[in-house]
Amino acid sequence: MRYNWLIFGLFLVLGTSPLFSQTKKFKIHTVAFYNFENLFDTINDPDTFDEEWTPEGLQRWTKAKYQTKLRHLAQVLSEIGTPENKELPTFIGGCEIENRVVLEDLIQQSQLQEAEYGIIHFDSPDKRGIDVALLYRKKWFRPTNYSVIPLYLNATPESEKNNTAASIAEKTEDDVPILAPTKRIYTRDQLLVSGYLEGEEIHLLVNHWPSRSGGEQKTSAYREAAGKLNKKIIDSLQQLNVNAKIITMGDLNDGPYNKSIKVALGAKGKKTTVAPHEIFNPFEALLSKGLGTIAHQDAWDIFDQIMLTGTWLSSDYSTWQYWKAGIFQRNYLIQTQGKFKGYPLRHSLTEVGYSDHFPVYVYLIREGK
How confident is the model at residue 299 (pLDDT cuts 50, 70, 90)? Predict the structure, then answer.
């Protein structure tokens, strides 16, 4: 069984004095998250609003464009985590995924085939049909339980002021009408996966929280509700096992400083202040350095985040522990000209891009024997 090994002085990881450092050997796994931005096939699904992503639709989404999109995503996913980890990511959380078929097509791309990814995916109630999913490497991780937890949202009185007719109660983040009288906003479920990473039980949550369409403040309550649901799931896992190791990841449509993350989820940005049952957000520090995963009006923010419970922050490296986090950014992922020069290179009518988000990742390490 092939491993990628990290070999370095223990003080580099633990921050102890070099005088007492020892050369250690560590196994490493990469956990990644990527917003695939409209990973649609070319087939019109009569149950969702996907007409735009068909050969006859606004995007003129042909089989050739679809195949190019798959190759682009596979290239990115195959490189996340390098150079520290030469192995492909052990876990890939993704969002804006139309169905299981597009994931099956994705993992069959030449850059990803050797990883032998498994797929955990459920159809969500989102009216465009976009879902979240988890890809995992079957030789490293054995899933034991997985389920989706729905996020129930109703249109607020403020949002109802924007009704265009009695038949339309609310628009989702993708400007898809939601019909009265339910006034429910159909958004993505939260995916929970439990299993064993080389014999150690861990839990992963994959999210795509409601967007800011209609205004950040007017829609904040929706994302705060998503944060509360996420925290409720984490609390329930910790009630079963106070030492549960939990990772939550996703496109949260909020930055590390917003109420949905700081208050509803209770995430903290400094490792030294995080208790074992609390949540550490390594991307708060990256944002303070001016880094970002998404740009709007020339301002960068980090909507894509991977957070971990404090149980991942121990100095006992005989079990899997958090090492460090990063934003994956390569020149080929960046727009080089035009109005959006410097932004992530997304799809347009004339060019099949990658995504309007940069992917993110964290490393997990364990001392080798």
Answer: very high
